[in-house]
Structure formats: structure tokens, C-alpha cells
């Protein structure tokens, strides 16, 4: 007999409405927290921090200690996958990630075909530590990037407006593009399976650049690769819960739901849940979707934005979150106010 989950986030991901809504925040460990900035100084480079299980555990726990979120997301980055596959990845202060671009089959042939899981051992050790140090009511989330989002960094070697280099590659060299996506689907599924084995109870897949894809490329580069990843994970670890976040994917959400891709679908801040939720099956959990700038602004913008979501999702399985990651400028007091408001509703 399978046990009924008791953690609020897992109950919601099982399709059960829970009130007050459970809450966590994308990028909840990070520079808006003074204690993160302090630990970051001790770590050396950003990747050194990701691969230091003790310090990565510490920064993962910081927002849990301070706010008591219902979920704790592993501290790592989506770019550890290209790094483990053999691509050079650096994080340049105030500039973001820089990679040696992979733009051809020859470049791809220099990376490993299968993900060398042993290179990611520190990440799994962080999860193992967290599964023992977190409060018992807190759900431990793993994550990875969706293949298109990760591929767009691998091809351009950095963040680019509208992911133009990767999009152009998809048109000009479909054979290479499909091979790269396939490599990432297999690597990411293997990575997520190992995260579950190390203690993650659910995982979130970040398709941060879904907005860049025209309809002709969306299924090929986003929906189908994510479907294959989720199928790979679920066939190996049926108990694993999956949240899919496709930023800019609002027009496709109902198709993710109809195809059964993900136990939860995260809404970005451009979507109005009042319009979106009626198009989704009642058992599919949703997550989101306050504008991160409303959290920076605070006051009326924060209260009104939060109340709009609370009212729209009442009676449905929903996890409160932002519609994208929290920004470094966010006042900590506004996060406290948000949590008090959601929990007092
Ligand atoms: C696109 C993307 C990346 N990384 C990630 C995404 C998808 C989510 C999204 O769309 O926001 C995901 C990510 N990155 C990080 C986490 C950790 C866990 C958490 O959410 O608390 C997660 C889930 C830590 C991080 N990843 C990064 C930081 C900041 C670096 C630092 O502390 O010096 C953190 C806390 C660096 C990073 N990593 C990435 C970029 C573009 C940057 C630089 C931008 C910036 O500086 O804010 C790639």
C-alpha cells in the first residue's frame, strides 16, 4: 500500500487542494539574503560553492531557517550539466555565465556522450545532507534546466537576448541541434534519477527561455524533450514528483497538462490564473505566479497581486511562488510580509 504524503507540497503535487497554500520561492537562496552574501565570500567561485556540499547545504538551509518555506530547493545551477559533460563553464562576477561555445557536431563529439555522474557527486552529497538536516515538514526539491534552455547557453556561450544564436542554429543545423537536445535529455533524466536517489522528493524543470520559441520549434525543442525527460525519470522512479516551469509557455500549458507532462505546472507572472486555470484538469497542480517586481515594490502592489492569486486558486491544488526567480534587490521584509499574508489567508 502506498503511503499518503504528509508534506504540504507533496500533497498538492498529488492533486490535493491545501489551505493555507504552501509556499516557496524560485531562487530563494541567493544574493537578496545577507547571510548568502557572507557565505558566498568564503566559497571562492560560484561553481566552487555549488560543488562544496557543506557550504551548499548551508546556503540551501538559510532561507528555510529565516522564513520556514514549505520547500527547500537544492543550491546548484542548471549549468552544472554542460560542465559535467566537459564544456568549460565560468561564472564571471556581474556578467553571468560564460561557456566555450558548442556550435557543431565536432564540438559536441568532444563532450562525453553519457553524463559522468561521478563528477556531480558533491551535488548528490548536498542532497543527502539536506534530506537529514531539513525540518520534517519541508519538501526537498531537486532541479535541472530543460534541454532548450541549457542548449541556448551551450551554443551562445552566454545569456543572449531572445536566444538568437541557438534559434538560428535550430533552423540552420537541425541535425546538430537535435543531437545536442538528445544528449541533454539523456543527461538530465539520469541526473534527476540520481537526485531522487540522493533524497530529492520532487524536482523542478526550468525552461526559462520558453518565450523565445516560435510555434514551429516549440514541440521539437521544448515540449517533446521535456516529455522524454519526465518519462525517463518516472519510468525509473515512479514516486518522483515533477514540476515543469516553462517561462513564456502559457499558450502550451494545456497541452503539457493533456499530455500528462508533470504533476505540477508553474505559471510565469504574465499569466492570469483566472484565465488559465479553467483550461487545466482539476487534478493538475499549479504553482506561481506573483510578479517578482511586485515583491520588490511591496505595499499595495504586493497585497493586491497576492490576493488576486489567492482568490483565483482557492479550492485547487496550488503552490504559492513567484512567476520567476526572486531578484537580488528584494527587501527581506517584503518576503516576510508575503509569507505572513499567504499563511494568514
Ligand atoms: C537560467 C538559469 C540559471 N540558473 C538557474 C536558471 C533557471 C532559473 C531562472 O530562470 O531563474 C537555476 C538556478 N540557479 C541557482 C539556483 C539555486 C537554488 C535556488 O533557487 O535558490 C537555481 C534553481 C543559483 C544561482 N545561480 C546564479 C546565482 C548568482 C551568482 C552568485 O551568487 O554570484 C545563484 C544564486 C548564477 C546564474 N546562473 C544562471 C544565470 C543566468 C546566472 C547569473 C545571473 C545572476 O547573477 O543572477 C543560469
Measured on Cα atoms, how large is the radius of gyration? 19 Å
The molecules bound to the chains, other than polymers, are:
coproporphyrinogen III
**SS-derived structural category:** alpha/beta
Instruction: Give average pLDDT, whole number.
Output: 97
The neighbouring-strand order within the major sheet is 1-4-5-6-7-8-9
Fold and architecture overview:
The protein is of the alpha/beta class. The chain has a domain at 27-264: Alpha-Beta Barrel (TIM Barrel). The protein is 49% helix and 13% strand. It has 16 helices and nine strands. The strands form two sheets. The protein has a seven-stranded parallel beta sheet. A hairpin with a 3-residue loop joins strand 2 (89-92) and strand 3 (96-99). The longest helix is centred in the middle third of the chain and has 24 residues, at 174-197. The chain is globular and about 55 Å long. The two termini are 35 Å apart. The model has no long low-confidence stretch (mean pLDDT 97). The chain binds coproporphyrinogen III. Residues 26-31, 40, 46, 73, 75, 77-79, 91, 96-97, 143, 145, 159, 206, 208, 325 line the site of coproporphyrinogen III.
